[in-house]
Design brief:
The chain is built from 8 helices and 7 strands, in the order H-E-E-E-H-H-E-E-E-E-H-H-H-H-H. By secondary structure, it is an alpha+beta fold. The chain folds into 2 domains: 272 residues, Beta Polymerase, domain 2; 60 residues, Up-down Bundle (Methane Monooxygenase Hydroxylase, Chain G, domain 1). It has a 7-stranded mixed beta sheet, sandwiched between helices. Strand 4 and strand 5 form a beta hairpin.
Amino acid sequence: MENEELDDLRVFGLNQTGLRKTLINYDEFHFEEKELVSIEDCFEYKNKPSITWINIDGLYETELVEKLGRYFDLHPLTLEDISSSDQRPKVEDFTNYIFIILKMLYFDGETNKTVSEQLCIVVTQNILITFQEKPGDIFDLIRNKLKNNKGRIRKMASDYLAYSLIDAIVDNYFVILEKIGEKIDFLEEELITNPTQNTLIDIYELKREVLYLLKSVWPLRTILTNLEKEGSPIINDSTRIFFKDVYDHTIQVIDSIEQYRESLAEMLNIYVSSLGNKTNTVMKILTIFATVLMPLNVITGFYGMNFEFMPGLHNHWGFFGVVVLMVIASTGMLYLFKKKNWI
């Protein structure tokens, strides 16, 4: 029974740790896509003139990463970064390859929050290797273009494939920004109509989300600048203009994030102001009540004194006269407040 389950896992390119290995090999006239049973199955593609994309999904295996590192001559520090999922986005240009770390962001509809995943990319002259934390990504459109030979991607080298992956990640940032914008619009409406303590909590959570997004996107400027400039033999001159285009999109993303930060900061100020206005309204009402009741307290205070001889004390209509006087005093004060637009 255990052997049958293991065979089923191998059919889908998965091992018992949940690791998934896929390979796409292509050129202008040929396309091949398959699941890898073992990582050694990709070694034969190292010296082929066509472009090979090796994708590793799921939990990282140290042994597997080391095998790839030895065969493709990856630096030990690169292997260490691949095995750690909390790296900062960066680019490193080695002699025979370029190593890139990015943050791939998703929007989780169930939790209504942004989810982050680290993506590591190794680019050589004809091999591109991607390492993801878990199965599932935003590259299906690229795979479809490769499979159906759409656009220029099948005619270009591995550096253009790297550009396509980075461009897909940056384009998905705009999707995240749209979702965050919708959340900000909802909070602004709630802030104006009925701000509560939960509104403040939501603003702070969204502010942290925006700051994390900025932290993930900001280093991408340096990455794309390094890829765009001349120097690396792996990046062709014909591809540098495309990295410049992604750089421009990244600047747009950063500008939008900064605008969201300013909006959230202003929303916090509005929330504090609304609390102050509520407090002022309550104090205003209490002050009006206290002021209206003040002459009544004076009148009742006079008749609360223990003197035997007081005006109207033994008069049959004395009590009613005092009540009428109190009503006239209260009504007069309310009329005065209304006339001065205090209420």
